Amino acid sequence: MTTVSVIGAGAFGTALAAVVARSGRRVQLFGRDAAQIEAMRQTHENTRYLPGLPLHANIEPLADLARAARADVLILAVPTQSLRAAAAQLAPHLAPGTALIAAAKGIEQGTEKFVTDILCDCAPQAPAAVLSGPSFAADIMRGLPTAVTLAAADLPLAERLAKAASGPGFRIYHTDDVTGVEIGGAAKNVLAIAAGIVIGAGLGESARAALIARGFAELRRLSSALDARPDTLMGLSGLGDLILTASSPQSRNFSLGVALGAGRTPAEASGGKLAEGAFTAPVLVRLARERGVEMPISEAVAAILAGKLSVRAAVTMLIERPQKSEH
What we know:
The structure is a single chain. This protein has 327 residues and is α/β, with parallel strands linked by helices. It has two domains: 4-176, 3-Layer(aba) Sandwich (Rossmann fold), CATH 3.40.50.720; 179-319, N-(1-d-carboxylethyl)-l-norvaline Dehydrogenase, domain 2. The chain has helices at residues 11-22, 34-43, 65-68, 80-90, 115-122, 137-141, 155-165, 178-200, 205-225, 230-233, 236-245, 252-261, 266-270, 276-290, 296-305, 311-319, and strands at 4-7, 27-30, 59-62, 73-76, 99-102, 128-132, 146-152, 170-175. The chain has an eight-stranded mixed β-sheet with strand order 3-2-1-4-5-6-7-8, with helices on both faces.
């Protein structure tokens, strides 16, 4: 696996391209906006998403999807709700055996499918994997130490892909527990919104800590119902990602929650920025209900986002739940 292309020239895609480039390999970075790609060629940086951080010399920005598809490994760094369209456009150009890595966290609306399922639907001939864990694009781009998890159903494949996508300062662990990694990546965004609501509403750090702990219990219940391994949720793609996303203003999901907690409407709080947790929340709740899993914090977030419940009412509802054993 010597050639790598990254599909998606946003902040995270650009950062992942930098990781591969720093390992000494050439990497193609595809973006559908030809003007943006040309600007990146001229300025040698992604001024739209990561201004002031130069592109590595081994990165080649391009707007030719067919050419980008001619690689041993393709990393799809696009939002979950856009992943199906991107994978479907790629599929006709893929050579047999080309591996696809989804660098997205969430559940698709309408189908309730996780990201590797989407890849398998669109390109069944391509081995599918998912990359997830505590990682901010700016940190990765600067070469700051970061560790994440890559999951594929075939463990030897997961190991090979982890090596192909790793680079200096960017450590990738591998696993074959795809379900566990995908649940952690999807659910933590919803819980990060909840943590932001707590801070935005002025409820304090003690309340945030309690919410993260009880939210993690929800995550583990759902993972058990979906036959994921408990140790996966205790790792980078579960607890690690939740801690980061639920505590930093760099997180769009956390920032959305802060704005909601401060009294802004969902439309005002989004500020026109994508927060995957807002799309994932209602789908996550439906998925849990279908399997008889109780997720009151996630349900409260979904209700607030839908305008069906105020922040004050949600807090009262959660605090006044019947007392019970912690376990």
